[in-house]
Amino acid sequence: MNYPVVKGAGYALIQASGMLVHYGTTQTTEGRVNPESEHLQKLPGHLRSFEAAVKYPPNQTYIGNITPDGLSNIPRPWYENPINDADRNGKYGEIMPEDEFIGLMKIVDIFDLVVLEEKFQASVKEKLAAHPILAGINKFENMDKNISAIDEIKKMTDEHLALPLYFEGKLVGCVKKAHEFDDALSAHVMFENLVAKASAVFALKLLLAKSGLDKEDIDYIIECSEEACGDMNQRGGGNFAKSIGEICGCINATGSDTRSFCAGPAHALVEAAALVQAGVYKNVVVLAGGCTAKLGMNSKEHVKKGMPALEDMLGAFAVHIGENDGINPVIRTDAVGRHRIGSGASPQAVMTAIVTDPLDGIGYKITDVDRYAPEMQNPEITEPAGAGDVPQANYKMIAALAVKRGEIAKADMLNTVSSFGMPGFAPTQGHIPSGVPFIGPARDMILSGKINRAMVIGKGSLFLGRLTNLFDGVSFLIEKNPGTIDTGFDKELVRKMIGEAMSDFAKSFSAE
């Protein structure tokens, strides 16, 4: 079967301490009830510098400067074992500081909603103009528009006409509401959506730069974050995808948005693979930006335990799915796992539906998969809050299924977990950790011959929408392209022999 392939991946991180303090989960919940709470008073003292965020080993893993296996060799706590020679630029992407990102939000803002203070705007304009990937981006001229004095910005925020933007504790701008009374176009919603759009734009620009994909060759874009854009008459109507492609100059692309909580990226990648395999589109990009509401979800426990507030990172990604080139790893569209409506909600039922059922369909055992990438949350973020090591829990469940199926002995469970598992390294951004961060490393490991196949697993909590109690889950296999398999003979020699044989046949035909 002519399966589609994974041709590249780009990953972006944005350190957003100001957004964490003012618009993260703790602020939007506790701040409404008790804005003078002890936690909110202590939180600013636990913020990291940008340099500390860059040196943090999981962040370096996310952008490709450390492999997941390399991360497992670094002692924990990782925040006490920084990578001293770390770079903000990585093999797959980049870590961006908050001031530059606020400037990028202004660039991607088509309706003049982002207003920045004059000196701050001039400063970030200079930085972005020198950025190797963002210099010359569409709408860069927005950095010369809508400049304001700080007093005017404060007046708009005081009158609740706009949401304030902060950098290093200082007011530097605001996001205006887009409609007088439409809640779907409020300043807060526009802020969240512009953050998602800007971070996804950054991820797509990184993908284009890192993979060599031509922006004009992209046919279709699928955006799969957890935000929703629309007005009061069609909340969540979309379309993030085309708005992102517009900024990145993807003039030949169309696109749409896909949503399924944390499982959204897995659904979107399966859709992309199907579209390419069907011949509808040649080059599809699946991408998603970050989510401000997920910042600081566990910060209360981090502060209590004297840790840095580690949930200060917005995550974003972009993955290129294209036609089979005989080289890049394929997506096995005949081995897509799915949590059916009737699958059941127990952990065993979920894992059976999304792991063993698709493997059984193509005659594979659990142990035939070299690596599994389930929910890749950084355990250093989740453990202090009592959520445990999420990837490790998934690995143990998969290994337990292997024992139950008689594929491994019970005594080999821990060794099996070690062989196909890896530490979580993604920020807790909901949709971002769900398997997708491993696609870049998996592609490299397959191309280099270190592994033959990996399974990407996305799971989602549909019950959060209060319309169903159902769970969700989707998985797919990434596998070594048969075109790269060593057949034991000289391919060039075979091609030459075939050519000579065809030539001789043509000559004999002419002679007759």
List the keywords.
alpha/beta; Peroxisomal Thiolase, Chain A, domain 1; 6-stranded mixed beta sheet; 512 residues; 4-stranded mixed beta sheet
Number of domains: 2
Q: Low-confidence parts lasting 5 or more residues at pLDDT below 50?
A: 484-491
Q: What's the overall average pLDDT, rounded?
A: 93
Number of strands: 14
Taken as a percent bin, the fraction of beta residues is 15-25%
Topology (elements, then pairings):
Blueprint (H helix, E strand, L loop, with lengths): L4 E11 L1 H7 L1 H9 L4 H5 L7 H6 L1 H6 L5 H5 L20 E4 L1 H11 L5 E4 H12 L17 E2 L1 H9 L3 E6 L2 E7 L10 H25 L8 E4 L16 H8 L6 E4 L6 H14 L5 E6 L10 H6 L8 E10 L7 E9 L8 H15 L9 E3 L5 H4 L7 H15 L8 H8 L18 H9 L5 E8 L11 E8 L11 H21 L1
Parallel strand pairs: 1-2, 3-4, 7-8, 7-9, 12-13
Antiparallel strand pairs: 1-10, 3-6, 5-6, 9-10, 11-14, 13-14
